[in-house]
UniProtKB/TrEMBL annotation:
NCBIfam families documented for this protein: HTH_metalloreg
Record lineage: Bacteria, Pseudomonadati, Pseudomonadota, Gammaproteobacteria, Oceanospirillales
InterPro entries with a match to the protein in the record: ArsR-like_HTH, HTH_ArsR_DNA-bd_dom, Metal_resp_trans_reg, WH-like_DNA-bd_sf, WH_DNA-bd_sf
Location of the HTH arsR-type domain: 1-95
Domain of life: Bacteria
Keyword line: DNA-binding, Transcription, Transcription regulation
DNA-binding keyword on record: yes
Entry protein name: DNA-binding transcriptional regulator, ArsR family
SMART domains named among the record's database cross-references: HTH_ARSR
GO terms for MF: DNA binding; DNA-binding transcription factor activity
Amino acid sequence: MDNARAIEAFAALSQATRLETFRLLVRHEPEGLPAGEVARLLDVPHNTLSTHLGVLSRAGLVVSRRQSRSVIYRANLECMRETVSFLVRDCCAGHPGLCEPLLQELQPCCPSQEENQ
């Protein structure tokens, strides 16, 4: 990821409705949500949400697929991973202990299957 792509991603997330939309889609991974359902859950007019989804899509943060007459939107977690990695790539400057608290914070909220056994 380069500076321009990172700036585009952060610019897309720097608006409240788009940030809420992205976070909602993250919570509904991997199934995603139809655009109409996103609009309903966030209480946003459909045409307004369409504009916000377009910005998120151009930034690479959401992907969509047509399912019958609906368009299903999903968070592009790979793009978010790249964005976060871009931010912290040089965090420790050769001192791994400095990054440990950050890495602990970035651990997934759900335990892996290996941890459950």
